[in-house]
Design a protein that fits this description.
355 residues, mainly alpha, hpI Integrase, Chain A, 3 domains, three-stranded antiparallel β-sheet, two-stranded antiparallel ribbon
Length: 355
Amino acid sequence: MVGVVGSSPIAPTNFGSFQRQVTAAKRVFQPEHFTVLKTKDLAMTDFESSISRLHRGTRKIDLRAALSQQDQSQEFAADLLFSELCRAYSSTHYDGSDLQLRKWIDLFDGRLAWSVTSEELDKAGVAMIEHGYSPATVNRNISQIGSLYKWAARRRITPVGFRSPTLGMVRYPEEIRRVELSDDEVQKLLDGANAIKDRRFAVLIRLLVDTGARRGEVLERSWGQVDMEKREILVPTTKTGIPRVLFFSKETKQFMERVWTPQEMANETALLFESKRVSLQPIAFKRHWLWLVSSIGRQDLRMHDLRHHRAKEMLDKGAPIAVAAQALGHSSQILTRRYGHLEVSSMRKAVTQSW
């Protein structure tokens, strides 16, 4: 069933997506304004009822109150320190950002989050290069700060009129890192991962090889975002800000069913790779990865190289760069810059085979 607000269709929702919509909307409103109602077996607030009516075609929202609440949130965050913003961001991201942001927290210690300038970031980048950091590493650091401010903007906690200091910054020239990883070496990684006591590590490696996803995009997933029947994983928030779906193989599905019980997979809020030491946070598996690459004699490999391998495989099999970019969550320009030479090879093969 499709609901309509005015003339705009609203996609059918299930209970999970409906609850997520309610949770997101409540950020704008004060909870004490609602009374709890009972509808069948579902406890609903007045506001949840109004959301339900929205799906039936009725508008119920006080826009003045909503915008006023947003303004109050922005005023509250105006005195947020850079260190506080970084720690808030790192508490919800498990991509190593906490380690990368440490030097920046030290640099801007005691500073307001919104007082950092492009000039300061540029000078810091030059200093890093002069002290031996590669331009690629500096670019990743600046990109991380950009992601930090994008996240703050999406959370609507930036002051009115704030503009990220990373906007308009020119990337430092860098050599593109191309790592050759043979099919035989990939198989050694898959086989070697089985030697780790925590079987979830082997699942992680399989998923990274299958999907070409970023490490954090897999580590942060809960069972409610996994569809075992379709062999799909929903990534609602990505580095580019565009949600996407990851696809994994039948073999990986069967392996996952050996690692987790049906009861464990039915717990929609549980993380697939939740740390046994820190609740609600995924395990990073850094030590396990270092052991694995050492065991096959490829200490130069990073987990991210499995992403490059999947991109190469897709392009070698004839996938257009635009399709590969969408599957990997990259921009077409970035993929062209890194893998454009592979698409030329595919085009030559297609043309010569047509003769």
